[in-house]
Queue: 2 jobs
Job 1
Amino acid sequence: MGNMKVAMRHGLELWVDLNLQRTWDAKLMQPWPFAPVAWVQADLVDDDNYRRENFLFGAFCSSYVTIHLQQLRLRGGKNLRGGTIIGFGVGVANEAELSFVTSVNQMNLNFLGYDVSEVAVRHGREFLNNLQQGKTSSVSSQLNAIHHAEIEQLCREDTFLPAENICIYAARFIQFLSREKMQQVMYHLGKFLRRTGRAVILVHPLPEKNPKVTWTNSSAYSLKELLEPTSEGLGGSVDALRQLDCLYYNQIYTGLTLQAR
Ligand SMILES: C[S@@+](CC[C@H](N)C(=O)[O-])C[C@H]1O[C@@H](n2cnc3c(N)ncnc32)[C@H](O)[C@@H]1O
């Protein structure tokens, strides 16, 4: 199965890998797509605990991003106006996980999400439409959008490098890339960090914090494995700041803010 053309942007043709799209579409339509496989197999997952775990995870991610933006505002003042926050892999956005988009807009910033799955794109757009309807006039001019695209291709095209993009956010995303793709994407994120003041926010499971967890469909890349290609892309050292943990079932996810030293 091949690739599918999904859009033309700035003269570039965007393609998504149909296999990848179908795999994620099918996964996201399962009843508890992100629950640990071992817990599902042991019959320990139900609708109630799934809703609660994802709500708490989403609330953690949202407040983690919001804190970073508040600090940016303190340092950058009005210069941030019109800047964009990029989201990699929005998933089936729940209210808690993308609630930081409200803070983004209140600071006169835009949110652009990207996902390879049509199911995720549909959910994400619905979420943004609902947000738009509840907006006050002071934030209604902000531009939020979810695009159907594959992150690796956008990285190859240097799509995220223009100056208006001030932060890239990727929760539960990098762990689903093969090692080779992880290294390519992290290298690009390093290039993104060359411009002063930018940050990359990851919410990622570190192996040293999860010694007893078996990762069935994803990989808990270590900080060293993540930072090596990032430093290479930056051409200098990268710091992983503000490391905060969040429990999701039996898994520990860590919020990390990557910045150029
Ligand atoms: C595990 S979900 C995480 C969603 C959300 N960030 C969260 O934490 O709930 C990963 C998302 O990334 C998307 N995705 C996976 N690989 C991708 C790629 N190479 N390019 C774009 N999106 C991708 C999937 O479709 C899915 O929606």
Job 2
Amino acid sequence: MTYANVDEHLGLGLDGLLRRVSPNIGRILEKALADQEISVDEAEQLFGARGTDLFALLAVADVLRERAVGDVITYVITRNINFTNVCYMGCRFCAFGRPARDPEAYTLSIDDVVQRAREAWAWGATEVCLQGGLNPHQPATIYEDMVRAIKAAVPDIHIHAYSPFEIWWGSRRLGISEAEFLQRLKDAGLGSIPGTAAEILVPEVRRRLTKNKLSREAWVRIIRTAHQLGIPSTATIMYGHIDTPRHWAEHIDLLRQIQRETGGFTEFVPLGFIHERTKLYLEDGARPGPTGMEDLKMHAVARLMLQHTIPNIQVSWVKLGYKMAQMCLQAGANDFGGTLFEESISRSAGETQGTFTDPATFERFIRDLGRIPQERDTLYRPVVRGPVTLPPPRLWQPPVVQAMGEPAWVTREPIPTL
Ligand code: SF4
């Protein structure tokens, strides 16, 4: 039973549920069901939904998910490599970055990073995800050097690496344009970039989070440039701190505008704020992360706003926990994210979920929802382990990926027992 069909069990159907919601919310939900665009004002109203209104919102998001991408829930086998936690930036929401002399500061050598990528490939991963602090003690060429070294050792692994903040920093250190920096990384073997460091793309909020060092304009410019160079990215939001539903609606609207122009976002990933060890919470009075209802609404409203532009909506099991992630997968989301193996950034901020989910666990949670599990790669190509007997389902891919003309699916040997 899902939010979308629970009312059928009560003998009412979705129409019956929609008849019982408040008029304003009902009108917006009907619009979404009629494939019309939800405005920022309307999205803000949806974020305020409670009771039957909320239940109807979740049901409509689930219907639109099914229409856009069907019943498949995807996941990717990936390893996170947070290669340094040394960072000079001091973002107020971050508990990961450390000064160079901090006893907990660390920086992996390129050999260590390559070794981790080799292990990831041997364990069956199709992707490594590299992100780190802005470390002035590493050579200016470190970003390109790491990509080249990984590709030399593990040529077929997809390198998903470097947030727009790292692109901004790396290009400035080398004294070259962001476009030239991105092109050099692409030539070295970079496959895609994480759309992190977006936080909330509203200047009044960014000023308090990062002193606006990476401005909204800079984030958008770097993402646009990457997409124009044929480098896809994810899109994210970090919510539940000093932000409001108006900011959330404006943020998602901006992502939707960029996607219409570039077609380079592979998915949207809501990231709830993990507060425990952050200055933003301890000193600045930020909220202690989103509530469960806010998590559900974030995934549902995103589905309504992005249904025609970014149909893949990912849950972050690291932030949500498995059980809340399952609920969000019934409220508009369709991707379970990555296996990860290790992830230092959320853990540093106080998150207590595990740092590795094996594919069998993903499949158990997905089948428990009555949905169909499917491993994918970073570019949303189905991954088939072993001989192909039936073609796997076609997954939604963004225009930038379609233009690459990659094969429709990839094959890999069965996953070894870990
Ligand atoms: S969020 Fe990134 S840039 Fe900001 S302090 Fe943390 S590691 Fe540094």
